[in-house]
Fold this protein.
Amino acid sequence: MVRFVFLLLLFLSQPAFALRPADVTSKEGATAWLVEEHQVPAFSLTLRIRHAGSAYDPVGKEGRASMAADMLMEGAGERDAKAFYEALDFYAIRMGTGVSRDDLTITLTTLSEHGEEAFSLLHDMLSAPRFATEDLRRLKAERIVALRQQDGDAGYQAGKLFYATAFAGHPYARPSDGTPETVDGLVVGDLLAYKTAAIRRGEMEISVTGDVTPAQLKDYLERYIVPLPGGSALAPEPDDAVPALARRADKTLDVPQTVVYFALPGVARSSKEYYVAYVMNHLFGGGALSSRLSAEIREKRGLAYYASSDLADYDKAALLVGSFATRNEQAQQAIDVLKETVAKAGAEGFSREEFDEGVAYLTGAFPAKLTSNRSVTAYLESMQHYQLGRDYLEKRNDYLRAVTLEQVNALAKSLFKPENLLIITAGHPVSETKNEK
Amino acid sequence: MRRILHTAIFLLLLSVSPALAEALKSEGFTLDNGLKVEVVEYHRAPVVTHMIWLKTGASEDPMGYSGVAHYLEHMMFKGTMTVPDGQYTKRIERMGGEHNAFTGADFTAYYVTIAKEHVPDVMKLEADRMQNLRPTGFDSEREVIIEERRMRIDNQPEAMLAEKMAARLFADHPYGIPIIGWKEEMAKLTEDDVMEYYRTHYHPGSAVLVLVGDITAKEARPLAEKYYGDWRPASVPGRARQAYAFLRAAERVSLSHPEVRDPVWARDYPAPGLVWGEKKQAFPLMLLSDLLGGGRTGYLYKRLVVERKLAVAADASYSPYALGPATFGVSLVPAKGISLKRLEQAYGEELQAFLKQDIVPHDLERVKNSLKAAAIYLRDGLQSQAFTLGQLLMLGYGADFTESWTKNIDAVEAKDIKEVAQTVLQEERSVTGVLLPGKKTEGEK
């Protein structure tokens, strides 16, 4: 009864706070989603370019998309690399580029009074990056050293081995940052080929939050985005990936703590079942301190500082991926606990209490996620990318409230099978007795 | 030509823009028991960040008990006389709250971000654990913090080097001891040690409550009085900090590790901060660190990476937010085939050259612009405001610090930066650290 009243209160408080993005469309059809917010004289932008990620790196050219993303900021238009970075600093524009397996993403935050400069720089880097030979040499040298350093980093190696194993035979398997050898082999022509193939207006999703009006934004789009090369990405999309689970792979490193990654089948963001999976993952390993996994590994046994899981969505695959890090001597014990926790969640599901509390948390915590330009922009980005609808921010909590415990437990039964676990370790897992010598 | 004109116009605008004058605004009051409360209104969503700060941190760890402040921070989630272990997180999450905490050298903070209507419930829970802590699970949580240490330090050779360098630079000063603790000492910490620290340091007189969000000081006062009013005041031990003694000769530490592939070079200098030393040097030092380091635009990057090709990375770092001495750090990663000796020598040459040259006015303006904007960007979001304000309050400043931020930056002249560079970047006061591939050895030369 008490809980009922509480949920009702939450529900009633909801309509008081709702954000709906405006659609800003230029004459030539360049579109951006905008949430206006004028409290602070600044705005944030995310520009995602689909089908421009590392999965499109040619074989032997691993690291191409990622190097191209870095090189976009090393001079463009009238500015060489130094001048480009100095302009960013001079106008206090915070900008970054990065690639995932699927996409290239550029984020920027600027004072609204320098929106003009921000869009101008964005335009230059997408239309006329310098890609100077000497700058590429410099960045390659830096990247090669960084890759060699990460060679001894357990977290990095576990991540790399996770992709290589889970997606063996698929473009996702290859290292996004490249290897020292493939990076060394990259030439300016590779970056130009990437730009021609991938930087296409038809693939762009632009999201903006902050101190800019629709009229201003429309003007920026017309002058700085519309002139970019149109059309779609030229490279064919990879096939759907069939993740290779139910196995284990280990990378030995001489460090005291082993990093463990694990994976199970997931549910795609575009699936009807996504919200069921979202609640399920929260109960299993999504909640930072309160999840089943964290309770078993951290709270009850002190085996790790963190233990969590997340739904990982790729264009061509969906997984539930988690990780924790534990001292070498107890790595196997922690993996056994993971298997038992998965088995129990599959066999018995979650309780009514866990479920009610989980949904109350997920819905109650939502408004706080919409309190900065950067975080709202991230939501707009997902809304566009996954076609969640302009009313998503208003409806999102209803989608979660519509999920039932029965649905969650049915999904858990089909996904949480310990025999399907992919287990990756990087470190030096050893048995307790072996270590005591 | 057009672009130059354009720039000139913007310079003009920059100096008169009213938007830049705005800053964090807070309204505060103090309860009878000495608890200070500061409220920042931010009505973007019906949400409030409740952040309680304590003027105590790892520097208050008794000698031989390193890590106890941080261990206590973990135990603060593990039960009180009326809220059993596990219930705190459960109750906060049921209300849709996000929560966490952190321990610094000088302070400790606990925060919850939650829907406005639950602020009273949160205050009740927070006030309770500040007064009535009775945690369980000490043994398993000790394992958790030791795993945290492994994750942050022992698995990361660069972090191990930084820890060694700080130990040398700060010697007997508490900043020489890692916040998370030395592993050997952490393993011996007991329930009594934790509770002793709690009883000694967690008092209303050493606490500040920062509220940011959809709440006014008028609304906050009766709530604070109701929930925090009974927190009994007690005498707060003075923050007896050892005076810092500069090193009299440059020191070096080296660390070899089998998982290091290429060497790294770093140098740390003690520097004034917002409290310790010549406070007015903090702004020139922030600008100096951007001019020297500062990503791809810094002087060291330009000279050592771009022009002389001796390094692949060159960075400088400085943060003045400390009660004691701050650290001005420089780190370099040599290019392939370049020895650390050669790189170190080149760094010395470039530093001398930098000190001799005039600072280009446009460069100074660039780093000033970037630093000024930080005060605007931090106002976008609940936690960035709560964090900034809380940190300032811990150091004896207030929200007005952000108001004078622009003015303080504008007041810095090129000669001030040269002067602080001369004073601070003295090799004989520094510790140089090198990270090398090889077998595990931690040496000193």
Q: What stands out?
A: Residues 316 and 330 of chain B are 4 Å apart (CA to CA). The two ends of chain B are 56 Å apart (CA to CA). Residues 1-21 of chain B have pLDDT under 50 and may be disordered. Chain B touches chain A through 84 residues (CB under 8 Å).
